[in-house]
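dumping this here so i dont lose it
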């Protein structure tokens, strides 16, 4: 194994479709195109998020500070969305609003983006390297 066999940064920039479900759990015909957390794009957004948090800490009102922190976190997750099939133009603001107003969807986006296997080339399983099933 070479060190480069473990590299994930470039693969994480290859957007993948994540199917969308209604809040009731029904599959839709719509999807989001998501990049991985290892991508350069997300790493830049993460750095910007850290800078934003430093600014937010200066907000005196706790309620206002909490709202600003939640919106900043929604914007960070929205940076993972690079395309969609929704009936609205994709803008950073629209993606951030989606993540803010649909927190469970934002968590799904984060989980999808954090699973590097979603972004790696898919290969057929090699049965010769798998574990044999034990018979009883």
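and the seq i came up w/
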């Amino acid at each position: 194994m070479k060190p480069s066999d473990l590299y994930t940064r470039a693969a994480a920039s290859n957007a993948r479709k994540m199917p969308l479900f209604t809040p009731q759990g029904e599959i839709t015909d719509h999807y989001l195109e998501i990049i991985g957390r290892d991508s350069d794009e997300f790493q830049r957004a993460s750095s910007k998020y850290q800078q934003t948090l430093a600014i937010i800490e200066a907000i005196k009102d706790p309620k206002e500070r909490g709202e600003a922190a939640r919106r900043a976190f929604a914007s960070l997750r929205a940076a993972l969305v690079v395309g969609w099939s929704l009936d609205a133009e994709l803008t950073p603001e629209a993606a951030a609003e989606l993540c803010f107003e649909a927190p469970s969807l934002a968590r799904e986006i984060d989980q999808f983006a954090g699973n590097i296997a979603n972004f790696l080339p898919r290969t057929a399983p090699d049965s010769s390297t798998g574990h044999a099933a034990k018979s009883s």
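Strands lie at 16-21, 27-34, 81-84.
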